[in-house]
Amino acid sequence: MQDLDTPSTAALRQLDTPAAVIDLARMRRNIARMQQQADALGVRLRPHAKTSKCAQVVAAQQAAGAQGITVSTLKEAEQFFAQGLTDILYAVSMAPHRLPAALALCRRGCALQILTDSVEGARAIVDFGRQHGHAFEVLIEVDTDGHRSGITPQDDALLAVGRLLHEGGMRLAGVLTHAGSSYDLNAPEALTALAEQERAGCVHAAKRLRAAGLPCPVVSVGSTPTALAAASLQGVTELRAGVYVFFDLVMRNVGVCSEDDIALSVLTTVIGHQADKGWAIVDAGWMAMSRDRGTGRQAQDFGYGQVCTLDGTPMPGWLLSSANQEHGIVSKPDGDPSDVVARLPIGTRLRILPNHACATGAQFPQYQALAPEGGLTAWGRFHGW
Amino acid sequence: MQDLDTPSTAALRQLDTPAAVIDLARMRRNIARMQQQADALGVRLRPHAKTSKCAQVVAAQQAAGAQGITVSTLKEAEQFFAQGLTDILYAVSMAPHRLPAALALCRRGCALQILTDSVEGARAIVDFGRQHGHAFEVLIEVDTDGHRSGITPQDDALLAVGRLLHEGGMRLAGVLTHAGSSYDLNAPEALTALAEQERAGCVHAAKRLRAAGLPCPVVSVGSTPTALAAASLQGVTELRAGVYVFFDLVMRNVGVCSEDDIALSVLTTVIGHQADKGWAIVDAGWMAMSRDRGTGRQAQDFGYGQVCTLDGTPMPGWLLSSANQEHGIVSKPDGDPSDVVARLPIGTRLRILPNHACATGAQFPQYQALAPEGGLTAWGRFHGW
Predict the structure, then answer these.
(1) What SS3 class is residue B196?
(2) In chain A, positions 309-338, which contact chain B (CB-CB < 8 Å)?
(3) Is the ipTM reported for this complex over the cut 0.85?
(4) How would you class A109 by CB atoms within 10 Å of its CB: exposed for 0-12, middle for 13-18, buried for 19 or more?
(5) A57-79, pLDDT tens digit by residue?
(6) CATH of segment(s) B2-21+257-380
(7) Among residues 112-151 of chain B, which lie with CB inside 8 Å of chain A?
């Protein structure tokens, strides 16, 4: 077996398991694809750093042409700002108690944009900003698909929030939407239709603000599926997407990537068997994979992940079918796994493609970045808030 | 609202959110309960540290009478050994590539016990141990409920593994089993029956080894539900259990605790609403709660968690019904939530009881330990491997 090693598989044998491996060739291809899409549609790309929470991954996105980043926590903002990024959009509604931390970031030179979707939230920003003599740059969240937060484009509250921010002395930066319901689709035409709904709703909101005499320079839309499915982004200024950098099995089922595009996998070791049941027991349980079972409600259920050989080749029908904290069960639910002990002896190394790259990555303090020529580098990632 | 604060709620208002809060009074009560159960049944208690991965929590368990700990990774073993614990059972089948790290721990003075459940695994231990002149202390994993790993008590492989280890110069420490299928039950009589099955199977395995002239000083059983339901542990020497230290909604549904026993909660802040839908949006998403939906297949489904007021009082019918990465949706699925904006205005702090304490705790770099008199202390926990 060792005789057949490539430089990559030889390198992976040296790691302890479980480990989160990034296939750099795939990651770079994914980054280039989304950048080309944004370029072709004539908009800036502002990647969502919540997927990787990793300086090197974000640096690769910026090097490919991205402008600024999106973050989901102020800790991400602080960490990336410390690494030299200044153009940061915090795309979760601003909690009043976090305004002092946001102000501190701004005063240190961060061009931080914050978000609100209510009169109540806007008033807290205005009151705090005035009290401290700071004009926060604020986006209004627009709800274009009903899946979570935001003000619908036709709602009177949109103008009320816009006026409150503008007249209260804040810098009304524009509107933002995220059609997260795209994760529930799997047909190209449905994705393209949702992308158009996302675009049209957000542009409509921007027009209403402008018609009311309010500034609205930024029109920000996106989710990985709608970003890749959009036929036009007329009126939009920037695109946001996160998970595309790694992709995962959920995105494969949505139909925006193939298994061969998935850049994140969990390296694991076979530690035992239940031969009668056709099981190999591995050391990647849910602590490594996360508890995400996103493919469980999709057309093809991959359990806790698709099993691949050490070189990354999928083993058709072999799934991480069950998981405890530090144990995973590898089996072939629809096949004959009677050769499991001979095929996957103790010590065998496998790689598991995850349901959801954002959730799986978060289980690890670091990634192992695997270069095409086989070099491995540890890349740290943030944890917590 | 602030006028009505207790010292505890006042302290919790000072934390950033989300935060993982330990109610120390409940934790100590849970620890005392399990210790009393072990004492009453005449066995040692060896708590599983994988639930907390926290030095202070484990110290509280030892102070209450526990003897040694169980761990699920060698990193846990290394961390707890560094903190002065020496009696450590690594209760996951030994992967051959981890033997050098295990040996290093032993040579530094750790009384590390390791586990195997196959001839193949035992041979790797024997070969490595002999090569390095070290007699590893090894337990054989016994399968008493078919849920995962282990050799069934009547299997010939049990004696083969025992002989291989003993004759190979290792210290055969005994047998271990974990009836993890107890998580699927919810009737006291079924739990007691499974506890007896777990006990009887493991004791039978021990007797077979002894009858074959092999040593078997340790007979180790347990899971939180079977530990609490056991009527007798005759022939058993030690009990293992993990999640009891915090308990959670899954354990509440299994029937071994009440909501009032759950010592871990996630502190969160309301950041917005969708009034028409009766939703409050909070800053605890799945990154804080984990993706664990363990109650989804139980009699009472709590979504991503039971919502409580800041003082920890459950709000009947209010659930964290949906979760994205950093957004949670609080709603009352079976009630009239039309007053959600008035009842839970932006900035409101809530506490969410988790489905699975082991999974939720792992999302946080630290716990906030809340003393009965309201004092808060940050307790670190390990992450990764």
Answers:
(1) helix
(2) 324-327, 329
(3) yes
(4) exposed
(5) 999 999 999 999 999 999 999 99
(6) 2.40.37.20
(7) 117-118, 120-121, 124, 143, 148-149
